[in-house]
Each structure stands twice: as C-alpha cells, then as structure tokens.
Amino acid sequence: MNTSTEAATDAAARDETLVCSACGTTPQPEHQAAARLTWSRGTDAGRTTWTCERCSRENLRSIESKLDPVWW
C-alpha cells in the first residue's frame, strides 16, 4: 500500500524532465512518456539517473558489469 508520501514522490518523478546522465540530452516534451519506457533508469548516491537509448547501447558492457552476479 502506497503512503501519501510515496504517492507524492511517484507523482513528482513522473513530472520531472528526463536528462541523460551521460550526454545531457533531453527528449522533446511530447516524447517524455515514451522515453520513460525506452531509457535506462538507475540510482546513483540515492538519486534517480536516466540514460538515453543511444548512450545505453554504447555503454551496455559497463552497465552489465555493475550488476550483481546473481543476475547472471
């Protein structure tokens, strides 16, 4: 069950503009919702980070190497 604090945090996350943490690109406003499905989401020092499709593909091995061995 979501608390009101969690619901507010989720709503704020949906409203934030995505910025690629690798290259700094942002999707056009009309493509924000689709980008949330196709971009990679991560956390760094407790904050949410996003990586665009292009940067995700180019850095796939680096991303995979950070996964816990239980994923493999």
Task: Describe, in plain words, how this protein is organized in 3D.
The structure is a single chain. The chain has 72 residues and is α+β, with helices and mostly antiparallel strands. The chain contains four helices and two strands. It has a two-stranded antiparallel sheet. The longest helix has 12 residues, at 4-15.
Topology record:
Blueprint: H1 4-15, H2 32-38, E1 40-44, E2 47-51, H3 53-58, H4 60-65
Antiparallel strand pairs: 1-2
Features:
72 residues; alpha+beta; 2 strands; globular
Short note summarizing the structure:
This protein is an alpha+beta fold and 72 residues long. Helix content is 43%, strand content 14%. It has helices at residues 4-15, 32-38, 53-58, 60-65; strands at 40-44, 47-51.
Shape: globular
Helix share of residues? 40-55%
Approximately what portion of the residues adopt beta-strand conformation?
5-15%
How do the helices and strands follow one another from N- to C-terminus?
HHEEHH
Give me the Rg, rounded: 14 Å
Unreliable spans are none
